[in-house]
Amino acid sequence: MSVTIRALMGACALGALGTAALAETTITVATVNNGDMIRMQGLMDAFYEAHPDIKVEWVTLEENVLRQRVTQDVATKGGQFDVMTIGTYEVPIWGERGWLVSLDDLPESYDADDILPAIRGGLTVDDHLYAAPFYGESSMVMYRKDLMEAAGLEMPEAPTWDFIKEAAAAMTDKAGEVYGICLRGKAGWGENMAFLTAMSNSYGARWFDMDWKPQFDSEAWKATLTDYLDLMNNYGPPGASSNGFNENLALFQSGKCGMWIDATVAASFVTNPTDSTVADKVGFALAPDNGLGKRGNWLWAWNLGIPAGTQKEDAAKTFVEWATSKEYLALVAEKEGWANVPPGTRTSLYENPEYLEAAPFAQMTLDSINAADPQHPTVDEVPYVGVQFVAIPEFQGLGTAVGQQFSAALAGQVTAEQALQSAQMLTEREMMKAGYIK
Amino acid sequence: MARNVTNRRKAVVTVLAWLVGLAIFFPILWIFILSFKSEGDAIKTPFEVLGSAWTFESYATVQERSNYFRHFWNSVVISVGSTLIGLLIAIPAAWAMAFVPGKRTKDVLMWMLSTKMLPPVGVLVPIYLLFRNLGLLDTRLGLVIVLTLINLPIIVWMLYTYFKEIPGEILEAARMDGASLKNELIHVLTPMAVPGIASTLLLNIILAWNEAFWTLNLTAAKAAPLTAFIASYSSPEGLFYAKLSAASTMAIAPILIMGWFSQKQLVRGLTFGAVK
């Protein structure tokens, strides 16, 4: 073979390689740092095998930083991300503004009807699905079975707030550093206000009436905040006004909490014998209620959405479809075991006996998710969507400002009445400024 | 008697200095300790943490999960690049202000400093849009430009303070010997100001290395430096202290080592002109 022919063949081969490289689409996925998302990054070989023409670059950020980054990017059409991990708070707002690509055209094999109705409801705007859920959670009661037994009580599957108060009193042993109840106290719309808004739903309270008038001057809110403060001041750990999820997790795992009402995702942490000293003593129950028809649990999901205007919509859709499919759940189960499958998104997962056996908290998680209705979150009618939040752009600022008032009340800096008055005033002012009320 | 009092005073001052130094250094020490603990142990009480087993587990996880060297290289390019460009602009500016001051030199200096008083978030959206239109989002060049502009007032101020201490007569003598402006700057002023320029350079590399607002907001996957690498290990829900500490240790180690070896120059530059 002559040198010329060899050179020509080499050039052809290089050209073919070049064409293949050109055909490759790289998408950038912005995501949060949680176990399920990180696990997916480790399982990408399966995706690349099925889709060799798509390459995924990850941008992993802390939740609040991520929220700011993706909001800024989608609002300015910055085009930095092709797939964004967004919460149930963002989806209705962004979907309504046309910032997200509709996912209505996902193939039949994706089986969108299999998505849990409560979760799907929160991701749908005007009958269009704007994001696919990757992982969902609610909140529930986690309690120490041994302490409950020692107190001579038995936790019902669906407790009331009165029972929680009674149990907290009976389990508290301040001298032994055991506190009857641990709840979020740190100020923030996703911190203490996630808990308190969900709790207020079960007390018949609401953020706004149908005319968007703030309702912090209602008896229901007064009862909510008073009971919360009583519980925390009498039976909670010291310094609770700066406690969030991680602080309470540390307290519970080290055996210092009798009960903890928080995200269902915590169940896998507190029952993990490597990290938890009380792993074999934990029981679960639905979030409490007051017999008014709504429980005090929230509903949250991390979802994958595609920003409108991305140049790589097809590749982005392919990735979203893969990452939120039933096949992905099966892949995680095969590689990492059923207990590590992202929970709270698909009905079929909760019909799988292998999953139910591997995750003893699965049924409670499902029941908690089903007990929340983001379209009708409160006892009385409201003009907004969202269980532990109000899906309007102003809520992030409002929720945090109100959360600061309630956190100050927990720290003893103001009374419950003063905190509610301030919350009412500042919310009225902001809603007036935003044009919701005149 | 007087000597006794002086010795006692010295001892008290030394102990105080050590205590303040340890208090400042303690968070870094604690990060370092936590980075060698398991996630379960990292959330225990301080005494339990110290008594628990040591492990490299977090470092292994961080290495496996992230591309440390890509972030590290981005940090090097961004911090060194912005500092060098800043120096190129600041040396002539500081020379002019120190040796040929005008009526408004003081005002200009104050105005430059006042730009540091604006909260960066106030100009985030305009800069983001500008970068989007210029195609500078998620590029190292974009970050070099932004960090140069942000640190320029500090560079000018530091160099100005240093140049002010150099007798103007030396430059005059050079001029009388026929040195051009360029030669005066390069061959006369710069060699005399090397310690000041070195400390300015070091301090600005540190400032640029640690800058977390713009580097997080203007980058995504390609140009993200070590600040973004650290941010990827924080989480409001879950156990992450040990991994976050390992990531932080890896991110600050290069700059800490550089600071350690150049502490003399740094202290000299920072305290220059403070005591006469």
UniProtKB/TrEMBL annotation, chain A:
<keyword id="KW-0732">Signal</keyword>
<protein>
    <submittedName>
        <fullName>Sugar ABC transporter substrate-binding protein</fullName>
    </submittedName>
</protein>
<dbReference type="InterPro" id="IPR050490">
    <property type="entry name" value="Bact_solute-bd_prot1"/>
</dbReference>
<dbReference type="Pfam" id="PF01547">
    <property type="entry name" value="SBP_bac_1"/>
</dbReference>
<comment type="similarity">
    <text>Belongs to the bacterial solute-binding protein 1 family.</text>
</comment>
<dbReference type="InterPro" id="IPR006059">
    <property type="entry name" value="SBP"/>
</dbReference>
<feature type="signal peptide">
    <location>
        <begin position="1"/>
        <end position="23"/>
    </location>
</feature>
Automatic annotation (TrEMBL), chain B:
<feature type="transmembrane region" description="Helical">
    <location>
        <begin position="184"/>
        <end position="209"/>
    </location>
</feature>
<keyword id="KW-0812">Transmembrane</keyword>
<dbReference type="InterPro" id="IPR000515">
    <property type="entry name" value="MetI-like"/>
</dbReference>
<keyword id="KW-1133">Transmembrane helix</keyword>
<feature type="domain" description="ABC transmembrane type-1">
    <location>
        <begin position="72"/>
        <end position="262"/>
    </location>
</feature>
<dbReference type="Pfam" id="PF00528">
    <property type="entry name" value="BPD_transp_1"/>
</dbReference>
<keyword id="KW-0472">Membrane</keyword>
<keyword id="KW-1003">Cell membrane</keyword>
<dbReference type="InterPro" id="IPR035906">
    <property type="entry name" value="MetI-like_sf"/>
</dbReference>
<feature type="transmembrane region" description="Helical">
    <location>
        <begin position="108"/>
        <end position="131"/>
    </location>
</feature>
<feature type="transmembrane region" description="Helical">
    <location>
        <begin position="143"/>
        <end position="163"/>
    </location>
</feature>
<feature type="transmembrane region" description="Helical">
    <location>
        <begin position="12"/>
        <end position="33"/>
    </location>
</feature>
<feature type="transmembrane region" description="Helical">
    <location>
        <begin position="240"/>
        <end position="261"/>
    </location>
</feature>
<protein>
    <submittedName>
        <fullName>Carbohydrate ABC transporter permease</fullName>
    </submittedName>
</protein>
<feature type="transmembrane region" description="Helical">
    <location>
        <begin position="72"/>
        <end position="96"/>
    </location>
</feature>
<keyword id="KW-0813">Transport</keyword>
<comment type="similarity">
    <text>Belongs to the binding-protein-dependent transport system permease family.</text>
</comment>
<dbReference type="InterPro" id="IPR050901">
    <property type="entry name" value="BP-dep_ABC_trans_perm"/>
</dbReference>
